[in-house]
Design goal:
The protein has 215 residues and is α+β, with helices and mostly antiparallel strands. The protein contains three helices and 14 strands. The protein is globular and about 45 Å long.
């Protein structure tokens, strides 16, 4: 009996989602986050900065990694879900005839006090070059409306995340837009990779200065 009730509840929920008839986003690349109450929220959008940096050992000894990252301002997204939620998005694309797995990425971003970052490529002295390094979440997709997709997260974990949509017909896209969301409580943020060595060096300098004054 319990199984029948659960199945009925699932069917009702699915019917309600279909009946919501939420309009597609206005512009290509925009993402609507669906809520359990039948409403939808436009995810905040960020213009991406691409940043290529070498580690401290690469600068000092010529050995280490050079990483290319996506960087966006702000430590946390304003759109949050809980791990218990069924997390769904309506993503506007150029059309919905392309396999969404080839043009849509949902990926983890590492927050610092000032920004969020995701590594997309790295080159190491001994490890060589690697690309397509995004830490992705898996999703299921189906066509929605005329040019959009309805995505349902198949894997979930707490953290900050970004969504990007590529144009399969344009090989020379000028700008990449990231729509952001988060799952769970906000993470404690640490200094970025660039800020941490600077603070450590400053702390050592202050310690040495104090040691000399105590002599």
């Amino acid at each position: 009996m319990k199984k029948l009730l659960l199945l009925a509840a699932c069917l009702i929920a699915a019917a309600q989602l279909d009946a919501q008839n939420i309009a597609e986003p206005d512009f290509t690349g925009e993402v609507l986050g669906l809520r359990a109450d039948g409403t939808a929220t436009l995810l905040e959008k960020h213009t991406v900065q691409l940043q290529t940096k070498a580690g401290a050992t690469a600068y000092i000894f010529g050995i280490g990694k050079v990483k290319t990252r996506i960087v966006i301002d702000g430590s946390h997204s304003s759109t949050r879900y809980s791990l218990e939620d069924e997390i769904q998005f309506i993503v506007k694309a150029v059309d919905n005839s392309t396999d969404p797995l080839s043009i849509i990425d949902i990926f983890r971003m590492k927050p610092s006090k000032k920004d969020r970052r995701a590594e997309i490529a790295a080159t190491g002295t001994f490890s060589g070059a690697s690309s397509n390094n995004l830490d992705r979440l898996q999703f299921k997709a189906k066509k929605y409306g005329e040019t959009s997709y309805l995505l349902t997260l198949a894997t979930k974990s707490a953290g900050e995340f970004g969504i990007t949509v590529r144009n399969p017909n344009n090989l020379d896209e000028k700008a990449l837009i990231v729509s952001t969301f988060a799952i769970g409580e906000p993470e404690q943020t640490a200094d970025s990779d660039e800020e941490a060595p600077v603070k450590e060096k400053k702390a050592k300098k202050e310690k040495n200065k104090k040691g000399k004054s105590d002599e």
